[in-house]
Amino acid sequence: MRINTNSPQQSQRTLRRRTKSSPRLSYSVRGASTILISLFVVVGIFFFQVGDRFRDKNLWKSFTIPDMQEHFKCEEAFATTRPWWTSDQWREVRDLYHAFAQENKGTYQMADDNDTFDFSEIAEPFQASEEKGRGLRAARDIREGELVLRITNNTIVITDGYTYRKFMFAVEERFPTFACDIMTWNWCQDLDDEGEKFGIVVDLNDNNLLNAGDEETGANVWCGTYGEEDSCDMKNLTFYAARDIRKGEELLGDYGEFVSSHSRDELGL
Ligand SMILES: *[C@@H]1O[C@H](CO)[C@@H](O)[C@H](O)[C@H]1NC(C)=O
Ligand SMILES: *[C@@H]1O[C@H](CO)[C@@H](O)[C@H](O)[C@H]1NC(C)=O
Ligand SMILES: *[C@@H]1O[C@H](CO)[C@@H](O)[C@H](O)[C@H]1NC(C)=O
């Protein structure tokens, strides 16, 4: 029946092939090609599945901060009052950071590891308001021009998106929803005066809780000398009281002095 639909040339070719090869041989050729095709299908399915899993496994490498916030379900986490980080938890995260930094090049501490400072006499964490969440308040009266906060060995810089994502996943794995906190606390800034180096900076202690002054209240804590242009040292952020601050008053920073939002795009985050 098939022969009927074939063109004369095709029929001739079929005939020639038939006469050329023995029936046994063509049988084994057919068997071999069946095996070969099955093999291709199996290998194909294998690679497709592995490829899929590989893609899923590597998806995080292109995550932006909003992607990670969604992945870690941060919106849910922030729907209720956030817990305080205990000093034990901070210690563990700092230990985790040290182990991480040994294996990952894209991060460093902004100050030497022996450059420490105890802020507990000056600033203390408190629940600022339902809406604002946690904040810092003056632990005693502070005079205008006094040093209030500064970077220490606890301030870390992350200089590429890959390292940032990896560290967030490591923190999240250890303490679920903690990476959500870090992502709201950290800031992007230029790391040199030329504006060619960028990084994400985060304090691995409660200094993170410094809220930004809004238009109404303004900032009472200022990087560099209050009112003095360009006095904020990008490599050594130091915050001074812009006016007298009474004990218990919330400390509010002026992040505009050192935050550069464009660097987040540069880092692909
Ligand atoms: C702090 O450590 C650095 C090395 O990381 C060292 O050069 C410096 O002398 C140390 N400073 C003090 C005060 O120990
Ligand atoms: C900074 O130094 C203090 C005191 O030695 C230490 O407890 C803390 O873990 C250090 N910070 C980091 C990030 O290693
Ligand atoms: C950063 O500034 C503080 C406060 O002025 C100072 O004590 C410290 O030595 C400075 N660190 C560096 C590395 O310049």
TrEMBL record:
SUPFAM superfamilies, per database record: SET domain
Name of this chain's protein: SET domain-containing protein
Sequence ranges assigned to domain SET in this UniProt record: 115-256
Region entry Disordered, spans: 1-22
Transmembrane annotation, as ranges: 27-48
Biased composition (Polar residues): 1-13
Keyword Transmembrane: yes
Pfam families for the chain: SET
Keywords: Membrane, Transmembrane, Transmembrane helix
Keyword Transmembrane helix: yes
Organism: Skeletonema marinoi
